[in-house]
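Input sequence (447 aa), recorded before submission:
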Amino acid sequence: MKLTRRHFLKTQLGAVTAATLPAWVPASVLGQNAPSNRVTLGCIGVGPRGRAVLGGFLPQPDCQVVALSDIFGRNLKAAVAQVQKAYDGKAPVLHHNFQDLLARADIDAVVIATPDHWHVPAALAAAQAGKDIYLEKPMGLSVEADQRLRAACRRGKRVFQFGTQQRSSGQFRLACELVRNGRIGKLEHINVWAPASRPGGSTDPINPPEDLDYPTWLGTAPRTPYTLGKACDEQGAWKTWWFNADYALGFIAGWGVHPLDIAYWGFPGMMQGIVKLEGTGVIPEEGACNTATAWDVKFRFANGVTMRFRGTRNGAEPSKLNDLSEWKKKYGRITGHGTAFNGSDGWVLVDRGQIRTWPENLVETQFGPGAIRLPRSSNHARNFLDAVKSRRSAISPIEDAVQADILCHLSNIAVRLGRKLKWNGGREQFLNDDTANQCLKPRSARV
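Predicted structure, token format:
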């Protein structure tokens, strides 16, 4: 019999499942955390990032990871070992098809950390199945996809947590509270920066890894041959799907959504009214990677506040677009990512390493009664579980997630069209621009 890749993967899946029995003890006999106080979790997509997110849930005493789904055998093998180590050898149930995982009545919520082009399809299916959703960022490959997911979460009253975990860090919350409470004076301008996409990548067809169900991995993306590193880091290559427009917007969204989300958290009024924007950038024309390796996008919001969003070097050639020396001179330090709010009386810069302010004593601000205070979270996974149990909003809810993701889409469209645009924040479409509005729609699905 010819051993097909799909047969190989399913055989391996069965072997792993059999080797890790017994499966879970029924929820009814698990003690004080069962059943009403415990959140049962399924994980869809358990590659390196998925396992990192999974690691935040495994120590939670009122959470039990009961099922995993992935179409890449090596991912499942690593995730099973991770779960067994945390649960004294007990193994999760494995599913090749995530729809089978979603059909299980014993699962309350899911963590989705697939490649980007599967984020919204998996999350939509989860919402329709009545599951609460922790979705790794970014969101969809189109604004319309984001809107469909938002509508599904609203309709099903699903708790949603976006993977913008910087909101669960005290320094980012403090920076945004300083801005919202006018401690830097009147907000005038925001600078945002993030790593850009990488160029290059092989275009020579090779056989996919034997333990990868490549047709399913492609989904509705174009049926293109597998190339070295497309789906994962491999010997002699780094993964390229991050930077290929068939599967992602590139790091203009994959990384950019983090500091853009903080810009939005500090100034949520930015998406109200008419937003004017324009952008320039570099899109590689050779190699497997074809998303922006440098960009400079300028926004002017309805109340006059402006924002500049730029990509930092990530294997690309130095250029005026990724030269942030002027910002480094002003703020004293620029890492690969960050958000800086500039006001009439001072500024605050925040990244994952620090918060810096001018005047310097702003960082010591004590807020009194009546001050605007943002929700507090010190652990993104814990915050999601608490929201699932309380049915209150998570710290990165669907409404904010869509707006942060739209900022990424607007930036990408501005760079690719290379001309001035006007965005109607209320209607979520461009003004008098059919070409730009076409860019908001999903690409044609593969037949």
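Checked by second reader. Residues 5-26+34-166 form a domain with the Rossmann fold fold (CATH 3.40.50.720).
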